[in-house]
Structures are given as structure tokens and as C-alpha cells.
Amino acid sequence: MASAQMLPALKPLPMKDRVSMIFVQYGQIDVLDGAFVVIDKIGTRVHIPVGSVACIMLEPGTRVSHSAVHLASTVGTLLVWVGESGVRLYASGQPGGARADRLLYQAKLALDDDLRLKVVRKMYEIRFGEPAPNRRSVEQLRGIEGARVRETYKLLAKQYGVEWRARNYDSQKWDAADLPNRCLSSATSCLYGITEAAVLAAGYAPAVGFIHTGKPLSFVYDVADLYKFETVVPLAFRIAAKSPAHPEREVRLACRDMFRSSKILTKIIPLIEDVLAAGEIRPPEAPPESVLPAIPNAESIGDAGHRAQ
User: Which option is the CATH number for 100-277: 1.10.10.10, 3.40.50.620, 1.20.120.920, 1.20.272.10?
Assistant: First the structure.
């Protein structure tokens, strides 16, 4: 009897070809009959096309099997463990970031003061649509940016008729925050999830930032800030103005729809490369004495940072 034809190996899809995110709550995630499924308490199965999603947000009440984590890693999908409504980040997997040349390139840009300033000036230019002021340090540019951001919050609040005090909330006392801050935190949490997935897919380290430093997601915050005020921040104020009964859910659904309509996943990685190119250096070549892999890496149709199996 002829042997059954083997299916092709699973490979990650490029980030630009994926949908943004899925939230999962109160269910067991497993792999059954080769499919990534969520099983609820009465045994109902819901299939998730895991390979076509950038990141899956796992809320309280979710359990994940070893097989499910392995499959998500194989297809390059980021798993993020978050709090209720996705507003607290507890942990995340790492399906990408597997490019030593890009990690060294990013680190060199961040460690050299002159190169870092070039990258920060490019971020300022992209964010505000004008060149950064001359003869300003990173610290001075950060101060200018902070003042402009605070003013932008005030303008958006006025535009949408929302009472605004300041950007302030306590992650340990979530319900004590006012409605605009709850909406903003929910919206930025969604944005950070897909941005982290893109940073890893591009082969870079989420922790190695240029403006933000000292946090596990410093570079994620840097990148997300480049388009935050064009995307999720106005959306958060618009929803806060309606005073919905379940604001976090409204924000999540609106973010998902906006990410799809704006095709934001096609833009993040090119934006990252554009920002880092401002340093005007090339990724380092391997030293001549370096030893090539004994087993060559498998070809992949995914992005540079995805791990080919």
C-alpha cells in the first residue's frame, strides 16, 4: 500500500497577511485533530485559525495546553497573557526575534549616543510631521514630546466633549480610574499587543528602546507611539464620549475593526525599518571566523524574525 502523502510543514505567514488579534476568555485551548481550538465548559469547540492571527490575548479563565503553545510558536503567533479586558500584561511568548544580526544592529544603534539621537530625531519627525529642533539631546526631545502629548490629550478631549483631567490610572485599582483613562488603557493595550508581534516578527528585541528604556517592552512603546495618536487614542476618546456600559469591550471591538480597515499590520514593520535606517549604519556582517550552522535554516515565507521549523 502506498504511504499517505505527507502534508507540507507549517510555516509562519508574513505579518502583513494576518488579522490583528483575538481575545480568549474562559476556555481550554488545545490542539484537536490538528486544529487550534477553544473548548468551553460544556465542551463546545471553536476553531481559531492560529496561523493567520498576529497575536492571541489570553484573559483570565483561560488554560493553554503544551500542544497549543507549540503550534502557536510554529506558525509565529504571539500569545499574550493579559488581565481582564486586556488591560494588564502578565507575560508573553516569543515566536520571533530570532535574528542575531538584527538584534546586534538594534543594540549598536541604542548604545551609541550619536546613533541613538538620530533614531530618536526620526521618531520625532514621524510622530509630529516636522523635523526635531536642532541641537537638542534625547532628554530634551523627550521633554518637548511630553508637553505636546499632554496638549494633544486636551485637544482630543475637547473635540469629543469628554471631561479630562490627566493621563493617570493605577493598574492595581483599575475600577477607580475614570472612563477616559480606562478606554485609553484598553486601546493602548490592544496596540501594544500587535506592535510586539510585529517587532518580534521583524527580528528585533522588544526591550531595547531608544526613547523608552528599562522596560521589557521599551521598543514596543517607542514604535506604538509613532501612530498611537492617529489610531487608538482618538478611538478611545470617541468611545468614552458615549459612556458605554462595557467600555473595555467596546474599545477592543473598535480597535479590532480599525486595525483591519487601516491595514495597520502592513505598515508596522516597514515603519520600524525606516526609523532604524535613520542611524545610517548597516546590520553587521558575520565575522569571517564564525561557524555556519551545521544544519541550514529552513526556508520560510514569514518575516525575518519568524523561526522556520
Answer: 1.20.120.920
